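Dear Dr. H.,

I hope your travels went smoothly. While you were away I took the liberty of generating a structure for the chain from your last submission, since the lab meeting agenda had it listed for discussion. I wanted you to have the full record in hand beforehand rather than looking at slides cold. The sequence, exactly as received, is reproduced here:
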Amino acid sequence: MGRSYHVKCLQCGNNFDVNSGGGFFFHLLHCDFCGKDKSIGFDEIGEPHLRYIKCLPGPYCVASSSLDQHIKDNYPGEPMSEGESHAAVEQIAAACDCESRRVGPGSAGEASLADKLATGEANIVGSQEKLIDFLSLMDNFEFWFNIVTP
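The corresponding predicted structure, in token form, is as follows:
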């Protein structure tokens, strides 16, 4: 599940909407300089995505489970780890208009809202307690969970 935050940069004073998380068939990338986001489809990623699917213990998501199983059963390439996949996606993604490089989810360039608040790179306009209370109401499901149990 994706999330969206409205934040203010303490260095430049600009306000940003920060989105995290991707979709069933794409990654949501963020420029590590200006914060602009861009989606990149798995079909555009190509072989690195197929190799990453091959290393997963289950499907990437329920919506693509039959396609993912087909990839695991029939794709002849070697599996690729999550870290290798993220590095490959960074190489495939085009540079941002601001000429910075893009980073994918989970790569070295990504930081959580808590990390940015702790370092002073972001602040919350309004009540921090109310935002924390609100965020605590959101569920964080494990990626692999039993749909049917005995």
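Two observations you may find useful: DSSP finds six helices and six strands in the chain. Residues 3-136 form one domain.

With kind regards,
E. W.
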